[in-house]
Amino acid sequence: MAPKRGSKTAASKRIAELQAVLAYHASRYYQQDDPEIADADYDEFVKELRALEEAHPELVATDSPTAVVGAAPSMTFSPVRHAVAMMSLDNGFSAEEVASWWERADRLLSRDDAPKAGDRSLVCEPKIDGLSLALRYERGQLVQAATRGDGTVGEDVTANARTIVDIPSVLALPEREIPEVFEVRGEVYLPISAFEELNRRQLEAGLRLFANPRNSAAGSLRQKDPTVTAGRPLRFFAYQLGEVRGGAVGSDGLALPTQRAQLDLLTRAGFSVNGEIKVVDSLGEIAVFCAQLLERRHGLDYDIDGVVIKVNDLVTQRYLGATSHAPRWAIAYKFPPEERNTLLHEILVSIGRTGRATPYARMEPVVVAGSTVEFASLHNADQVGLKDVRPGDTVVLRKAGDVIPEVVAPVLSLRPKGSTPWKFPTNCPTCGATLVRLDGESDTYCVNIDCGAQQVQRIAYFASRSAMDIEGLGESRVELFVNLGLLHDVADVYELTSSSLTDLEGFGEISAGNLLAAIDLSRHRQMTRLLVGLSIRHVGPTVAQSLAKNFVDLDAVIAATDQDLAGIDGVGPAIAKSLQAFFGAKENLVVVERLRKAGVELTSDRFVEGESAGQTLVGRSIVVTGTLLGFNRLEAEEAITSRGGKSPGTVSAKTFAVVIGESPGAAKVQKAEALNIPILDEEGFVRLLESGELS
Predict the structure, then answer these.
(1) Which letter, b or e, does each residue of 404-421 get, where b requires 16 or more Cβ atoms within 10 Å of its Cβ?
(2) What are phi and psi of 228, to 5 degrees?
């Protein structure tokens, strides 16, 4: 008979299962540098096990994964016993969990034997997603480098660590300050730029791509041959001291008053210390720091997965002590996971507006980076081949912030038996035409101009907010109209009538009237938008803006020679060739003429206005956040850049002003306030565009 849900027998069985699962995955992560599951999935197993252990403390094993650090070292390198244990950190996944951690610490500090209330500041540090390392210096000389291992015993990787540019062989301290023993703790990481270059070389050589910078860094540091490590540009951030004996620092480094003072000493000793670290005085300031760092994380050249928060005062740290595996004076606030594991059900192919055939994965839906993901692009045939992802695979799915979801790699150890490589189809899945791969390109195309999928995508893109911004004409309606024979190309949009719409199911006089009004409004859009909406290969908003600034109307663009186009900033030979090929096709010129007859504006933006917009924002950076009533995202950016300004996505000390609409980004507003940057509403933004002055 199966054990009852919630019973002690059921809990015991599940605890045993979780212990086995976590032990296995810890070995894959720490010893083999080849994890099968994403960190977030591992964290969920830990949370489940901890909850069961709290409900049934009598079932807690002394070697439970919730009470151990890392994993036992492998036999690849000589073992090293740490003089001071290298502990892990407890995790917090919300502001409430961080607040609970501080409340527990504060209760301990309220006891009679606690240190007198003094410095209660906290240190916030980016949580680098790398490999922990302990460096031992004796009389100023590097003698040993060891991985964390299980926290008690690590691996000797001294020869490899000596190849890292941030790890000095000799401390850069005055002789009188050099302790007898000086142990430095920190994180080895691979810069994102170096990781991308490493994968570029792998791609050129036809080799498997590396999954992520963390695994690449760990694998590079744990090479038997130090010359291999030397060929990988690893870096090192120092973040605290371990064992310290003798010298001016004193026993355990306690002659230093604070964590911040430790970091300053490490900088003087010749180590790289992360420049984002900040001392704060409250939970509110921690929340602001975390929000700002989360927003900027993808602008950093190293991976982070959260923020480490530490009590700044070292005497207080020593009083708070530690549990069996983690200090009570620190916690790791984990950002929402950007990598998860999920099942890849099938690989399909979509046909885009230019005919490009793009493979994409349909997966078991999973929440990653705050949203549910079911589909992800696989880009092209070469990428599918290099990653070797197959239907039935468990795959690592990554979604970095607002970036589109990406299938990173398959988990090979979980691949079903009998699996075979996926093959790119030879025919278009929509029209059946033969798919063609152009010479020198990685993309494959359906070259049938009458392909239904291309028609739908071209017209839907023409109507999208990035182009002619026709409200109510989304992809589903375009597909319906194409299937009914009402639309064949973008010019047909302006031939829709009330009678042709009101006969359709779901359309009444009001809905038909609203759509026709939106279509009529689009006749007067800027030429920049029309150029984008025509789906000319390589012509996006930036190129379209350059063309609109340099040609009086669309006819001038059509008549432009190679020499005319070569003098335009941002228009290279490939774009020039694409423009001439597009307008050299008779069917495209017919569409342009029909658009002209329909009353679509073909004159360049600057000539519609009489002259170019006044250069009121030259050299100024304006950040827009939230929804504005009079501008969509692209229009606001165009309004700023056409006046000589810049429209970055982040707030910095160089930002001239921040414009806020409805539901603005809280972190951007908070940072603007912290830096005393002017904040404008939409009315103020309009005045700024007109005059260049702040109201």
Answers:
(1) ebbbbbbbeeeeeeeeee
(2) -65, -45
The number of residues in the chain equals 695
One-letter amino acid for residue 498 of the chain: S
Provide the edge-to-edge strand list for the sheet that holds 181-189: 141-147, 131-138, 181-189, 235-245
625-638, pLDDT tens digit by residue?
888 876 777 778 87
Token digits of residue 227: 């010359």
Q: Which residues are catalytic?
A: 127
Q: Concatenated DSSP letters for 337-362?
A: PSEEEEEEEEEEEEE-TT-EEEEEEE
With contact defined as beta carbons under 8 Å apart, do 642 and 618 qualify?
Answer: no
Q: Which residues of 608-617 are buried (b: 16+ CB within 10 A; e: fewer)?
A: eeeeebeebb
Q: How does DSSP classify residue 585?
A: S
Q: pLDDT tens digits, residue range 144-187?
A: 999 998 889 999 999 999 999 999 999 999 988 899 999 999 99
Residues 311 and 314: their CA atoms lie apart, in Å, by: 8
Q: How far apart are CA 640 and CA 686, in angstroms?
A: 10
Yes or no: say if 624 and 636 are a contact pair by the CB < 8 Å rule.
Answer: yes
The terminus-to-terminus CA distance of the chain in angstroms comes to 76
Phi-psi domain of 332 (left: phi exceeds 0; alpha: psi -120 through 50; beta: other): beta
662 by DSSP, 3-state: which? strand
| Long-range contact set of residues 193-197: C-beta below 8 Å, sequence gap at least 24 | 193/301, 194/232, 194/233
With residue 13 as reference, give the H or E element that holds it.
helix 8-26
Residue type, 253: G
Question: Helix H segments across 60-175?
Answer: 95-109, 158-161
Taking the C-alpha atoms of residue 667 and residue 189, their distance in angstroms, rounded to an integer, is: 27
Among 295, 277, 299, 275, which residue's Cα sits nearest to residue 193? 299
Could you give all domains of the chain from N- to C-terminal order, each with its CATH number?
8-67 (1.10.287.610), 91-334 (3.30.470.30), 339-437 (2.40.50.140), 468-608 (1.10.150.20), 621-691 (3.40.50.10190)
Place of tokens 């995202």: 633
Rounded average pLDDT over 503-531: 90
406 pLDDT tier (thresholds 50, 70, 90): confident
Contact call for residues 545 and 647 (beta carbons, < 8 A): no
Three-class DSSP category at 586: helix
More confident residue, 633 or 465: 465
Which residue shows structure tokens 């019973």?
7
Higher pLDDT: 442 or 173? It is 173
The pTM assigned to this predicted structure is: 0.56
State the Cα–Cα distance between residues 90 and 68, nearest whole angstrom: 12
pLDDT of residue 50: 81
- For residue 473, count CB atoms less than 10 angstroms from its CB and return exposed for 0-12, middle for 13-18, buried for 19 or more: buried
CA angle 259, 264, 268 (to 5 degrees): 145
Tell me which H or E stretch contains 122.
strand 122-128
Geometric angle at alpha carbon 476, from 422 and 351, rounded to 5°: 30
Sequence-ordered list of residues with C-beta below 8 angstroms from that of 58, at least 6 positions apart, any chain: none
How far apart are the C-alpha atoms of 512 and 509, rounded to whole Å? Answer: 5
CA distances from 174 to 139, 260, 262, 324 (A): 11, 20, 16, 37
